[in-house]
Specification:
Number of helices: 8
CATH class of the largest domain: Alpha Beta
Largest sheet: 6 strands, mixed
Strand content: 5-15%
Helix content: 40-55%
CATH topology of the largest domain: Nucleotidyltransferase, domain 5
Order of helices and strands: HHHHEEEEHEHEHH
Radius of gyration: 19 Å
Shape: globular
Length: about 270
């Protein structure tokens, strides 16, 4: 793993092969404007360090670029959809290497309620999970790769988040033909999808005879994706002031997961 010669590497740093995959996506756009004076790879490394370690912006180690520069790029890339572009590109590579089409034809929905800190917008109480904070609604493909993420107050019902996810899936992924979800998405959402969407929503029901935990068909895939986010301490709670920043942090964590998945596959072909 190579970094700038002025510092020792951190475990969260990008390797050379990983950097080659995303460098074109975060490069400065051609045209007028002042050239960058900051090492953009080190900016990305600093964001990954914060995402993995859970530290505050002001607590970033001093051998990274100034935290204000790092935060500027984080916010700029969040507003301009760069994290989405990186995630979409890496997901397409993962799918192709797995022998699938680049664009997904199926998706699975789920949600996760997490506590928040005392500050920040959009906080609520999830009566079912007894969690005060926010809810992460996600859609993944059949490999567990993240397609969409929506963060709301925890009091938002799964089916209400499902309406927005289904609308976004229809607009963003024209290839989707089927979606799986659990019983929390049953009811009005099923009828809405039947009338207004191109795909089919299949509710995976728990067998009546089931006692205790049992892996449900397709549902385990999205639950595994949520499990992949657990090691990222910035996601242990929702520390972000805005829901948009919460969504970006989830995307960044998943980008790290995709890079770990991709590099061994690419360099063992």
């Amino acid at each position: 793993m190579t970094t700038t010669p002025e510092r020792k590497p951190y475990a969260s740093d990008l390797g050379d092969e990983e950097w080659l995959l995303i460098a074109p996506l975060v490069a400065q756009a051609a045209g007028p404007g002042r050239p960058r004076t900051v090492d953009i790879r080190e900016v990305v490394n600093a964001i990954l360090y914060l995402n993995k370690s859970g530290c505050q912006w002001e607590m970033l180690p001093h051998d990274f670029p100034d935290y204000r520069h790092v935060n500027y790029y984080y916010l700029d890339w969040s507003r301009n959809g760069i994290w989405d572009q990186v995630m979409d590109t890496l997901r397409g590579l993962v799918r192709v290497l797995a022998g699938k089409q680049e664009q997904p034809t199926a998706a699975i929905l789920d949600s996760q309620s997490v506590k928040t800190t005392s500050s920040g917008e959009a906080r609520g109480y999830d009566m079912g999970k007894q969690v005060k904070g926010r809810k992460r609604h996600i859609a993944v493909d059949t490999l567990g790769c993240l397609l969409l993420v929506l963060v709301t107050r925890a009091s938002t019902q799964d089916r209400d988040g499902g309406f927005e996810l289904c609308n976004d899936l229809q607009q963003t992924f024209g290839t989707i033909a089927k979606i799986w979800a659990d019983h929390a998405y049953a009811g009005d959402l099923v009828e809405y999808v039947r009338r207004f969407c191109r795909f089919v929503l299949d509710i995976v029901k728990r067998p009546k005879e089931q006692r205790g935990f049992q892996v449900q068909p397709k549902r385990w895939i999205v639950e595994r994706t949520l499990g992949w986010l657990t090691p990222f301490r910035r996601l242990s709670k929702d520390y972000e002031t805005t829901t948009e920043s919460s969504e970006s942090m989830i995307k960044i964590a998943h980008i790290r997961v995709l890079l770990r998945r991709l590099v061994p596959a690419l360099y063992t072909l």
